């Protein structure tokens, strides 16, 4: 027999909790980010990170996966939380605290299908992002820093290359994330420098 315990109601207001996802892929050796075009206010018609509000019966990870699938059709293998964003004015509707995640998907798995409250979904070069909704430019900046840290472990970089890849393709991943050319000898183990 299961007994449902009523939720306690506090006298002071509670902020809403949301998730936002920074999903990266590599297209022609250029780092791209997944964005959705908002179909609803606020910021209707503006590009934004996929994301949404936490339901009362789900974890943050479940929320992130659900929102990503609902808005883009993408289901990454691994989502990694990298930051919490809590500026009281980050959302004009109400006080919203967002937990941000990042994921890496190979280009072959990056097929999109806009759904739910997304009017469109698309991949954008990190060097040519459109004007963004909310504080998403700030979140993306922190995501790039977190991505640089993740790539210190080569297994993270392997998520952006095909199952069979060349050292040149691996070098392209690191160059795209760092935004600068890197010496190819760093990827080949050349002893002549």
Shape: elongated
Kindly name the structural category.
Answer: alpha+beta
Distance between the termini: 72 Å
Low-confidence runs of at least 5 consecutive residues = none
CATH architectural grouping: Alpha-Beta Complex
The share of residues in extended strands comes to 25-35%
Secondary structure tally: strands: 7
The count of helical stretches stands at 4
Describe the structure.
The chain is an alpha+beta fold and 193 residues long. It has one domain (16-187): Nucleoside Triphosphate Pyrophosphohydrolase (Alpha-Beta Complex). It is 23% helix and 25% strand. The protein is built from four helices and seven strands, in the order ββββαβββααα. Strands 1, 2, 3, 4, 5, 6 and 7 form a seven-stranded mixed beta sheet that branches. The model has no long low-confidence stretch (mean pLDDT 89).
What would you say about this model in short?
This protein has helices at about 60-70, 135-150, 155, 165-180; strands at about 15-25, 30-40, 45-50, 50-55, 80-85, 95-105, 120-125. With about 190 residues, it is an alpha+beta fold. A hairpin with an 8-residue loop joins strand 2 and strand 3.
